[in-house]
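Handoff note, outgoing to incoming analyst
You'll be picking up this chain. Sequence as last confirmed:
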Amino acid sequence: MTSNIVLSTKEYKAIGTRPVRHDGYEKVTGKARYAADVHLPEMLHGMVVRSPHPHAKIISIDTSRAESHPDVRAVMTSVDLPEPGDSVRELSSNILARDKVLYKGHAVAAIAANSRHAAEEAAALIDITYELLPSVTSVEKAMAPGAPQLHDQYKNNVASHNQHKLGDINNGFKQADVLIEREFRTNMVHQGYIEPHSATAVWNSNDKATLWCSSQGHFQIGESTAKVLDIPASWIKVVPMEIGGGFGGKTTIYLEPLAVTLSKMTGQAVKLTMSRTDVLEATGPTSGSYMKVKVGATKDGKLTAMQADLRYEAGAFPGSPVGAAAMCIFSPYDVDNLLIDGYDVVNNKCKTAAYRAPGAPGAAFAAETVVDELAEKLGMDPLKFRIINSAREGTRRSTGLVNPPIGCVETAEAARDHDHYSSPLEQKGNGVLRGRGVASGFWINGTGPACATANVNYDGTINLIIGSMDIGGTRPMAALHLSEVLGIPVEDVNPQVGDTESIGYTSMTGGSGAAFKTGWASYEAAQDVKKQMISRAALLWGTDDSQVELIDGMFQHTSDPELRITFKELATQLPDTGGPVVGSANLDPSGAGSAFATNIVDVEIDTETGKVSILRYTAVQDAGKAIHPSYVEGQIQGGVAQGIGWALNEEYFMGDDDRMHNSTFLDYRMPISLDLPMIDTVIVEVANPGHPYGVRGVGEVSIVPPMAAIANAIYHATGVRMQTLPMNPGTILKALSENGSTHS
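Most recent structure output, in case you need it:
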């Protein structure tokens, strides 16, 4: 693995090291508790009854036979939920269908019984009468004249349209010597997390509920559940559990209001857990899309104009990531004239949710493929072309935002200078072709409110409580911030995620914002501890606080070198100097630094079978400052692996009946270890000036370049431009056949 490229101007004692992960022991020994591990006395088991149809009116629901089952304790339908107001109507209607079902898998009823088997038996006893309606499961068909309408208020199934403009697009294209315009299509894909959704609830006698679930933001899950149930958010205590993957897919609710309501109806704890088919058919994947991209440049390689028409499917209810796609698609480039139109389109698929840099990967697939083709038309090296046109500090994005210091140029240059890019790519022959491709990517990165408390124990250790769910190293990251400020070993910090009654409000772990906001909150909590501990040392020495400083975990008098005491030694004196020390922080910081990445990939294509194999992969990414480099490398590798799956195999395979036909991991083809080489990472560090330690989020931009990089590599091998995802064997063979020629 290539060494990190460090462009930061400052190094640290703890930040940037690789300590043993605080959560590692429990996970590798199987002691970590996930949502499905919750078992409570007299707990009932729930089952959700789901629609077999993609679009139908609900004529009647007869629950009498199920209610008569001896082991059934409660049956609920949408009438058992509060009538929703406009602000929560669509969220509530996705929890339980009201007048219509809008996709196969749409929840219609829920049952609580003494056992899961009894609940399954009872589910088959609920009699539902449907009136079938015509359905539509693609963006283009949904927007076509005369298409079935899912909602009366969304004409042509378009829920919203947003536009970004910069400069004069027509004048920009007039200035161009070369113009390229292409169309692209992508299919819906799922995040593929290993742990299915599970929720357990207890409605207490004081009319408050406790909820255990798998989520990326327990505060938001509690809030959303309360909104659907029309109760104050403070009535629901959410206990965070370990999460077996989320990637954006566990940012919303599915089972939680059902578990709470069934518990209230029965007076017992109720647990619901999805099957894998339920997860794939009824939770939130990311959008399929139709995109049109047009780009122009002068003969000397300067971009003059970039235009995109982005149409993203939202599924049954509005909320596709087309807005983020529009903000991201051209952000790696410095171009004066931009026009981006984004359409949020509803259709008869499950409601989409976030998936790792939501919206950006598909958009980059389109944009970076066209950029690569443009470079070829101009006879320029593709990385040189990108570097010439790279966004820089001061570049204005399509949103109007002017870039602060960013690492776009630096990542492209690091890729250009990497031995992977300059190494020869030997051809194999015998119908096997090899090619190399590159692509760049951008993600916005997020922030939000965050809280942290640091409780100093009398033995010198610290219990650190944070509000961000840990989905990829949040606890060790927070501990490293604390360790850096106080100069104590990171092993002396015990980081934990508090429940919604134990820590202040903290926003969702998503958008690559947790390290930024919760790292900063931990930093400020440590500063609070530092201030208080300095006061205790000053009290011991009978001096003023200003005469005491903390250096590398040692408190010392600024003018008397004999007066020295370690953090641990001072902690033992706390009972006699005023009692406990608790540091706290609450903030809502701005200044999250955007993230850039550039990927290089070598592929091999078997022209007889259409199979694409990944031979070598190098991912270069700007982390701002890698707090725990091992986690950063893992995030990059994980994003790339998911991008490879999206590029080559993954899709919601919809039959002519508009139903998903591959709703198991046997048929939904995700990459396994045998499909992947070692994914080499290069961490570039261009410090984010908006954070005390220069942090930029790293979890999402890693998935943005792979699809385009692989498509460009396939072109380099075959001479065929791929414009549809996934690029599976059938698609490859069809493209080769239609092209009629191959090259190496």
